[in-house]
Amino acid sequence: MSIYSGLTMTEAKCIQTVASQQRCQLTDEQWRALISFHQTLLYEHHNFYLASWHPSASPELKRLATTMPARLWRNALCSPLELLRCHLPSSREYMRTFIYFAYPMMTLFLETVPRYQDTWIECLGHLGIYRMEVENDDPYERSIWAGITQSWYCMAATHARAN
User: Fold this and answer.
1) pTM of the model
2) Quick one: how many helices (H) and strands (E) in the chain?
């Protein structure tokens, strides 16, 4: 259960960091710290899911795992992305940096934690939308991400019809 405790401590730090920086201009150091905290939170979530799938995992840990996908989206992905989006264009490179990390991390979730694949596919589609927003000045790059995003949402719709 200590893996869950570590995750909740990191999550609390991320929530506190985003809340305290909603209305102020951040320094480079603050942006890097924000991204680092949220990267750590994504790692903590991944470790938690792997532990919850282990045959020796307690029933409580397995039960907790069912509540975690929404928390992952809300606290590890959406909250920093929204903060970054609110500070565009000055936060553009930090937003790219975070998405460059988060996108492959979510594909790792898709591969290693298939139980929640519908959620991970939806997260990848949402990340694509944020990536498109960063590319307002590059129509070619934006169109590439529009196609990627559409692909994820089509996959999500196909999975929803199948279930």
Assistant:
1) 0.92
2) 8, 0
- Boundaries of domain holding 13: 2-162
Q: What is the pLDDT of residue 27?
A: 92
Instruction: Report the pLDDT value the prediction gives residue 1, as an integer from 0 to 100.
Output: 52
Q: What is the mean pLDDT of each run of 10 residues along the chain (163 residues)?
A: 88 93 86 96 96 90 92 97 94 96 97 94 97 91 95 91 78
Burial of 111 (0-12, 13-18, 19+ CB in 10 A): exposed
List own/partner pairs for 28-32 with CB under 8 A and 24 or more apart: 31/91, 31/94, 32/94
Cα separations in angstroms, 36 against 6, 14, 32, 155, 157: 15, 10, 6, 30, 33
Distance CA 134, CA 142 (A): 8
The total of structural domains in the chain comes to 1
| CB-based contact 7:45 (threshold 8 Å) | yes
CB under 8 Å to 160, separation ≥6 — which residues? 118
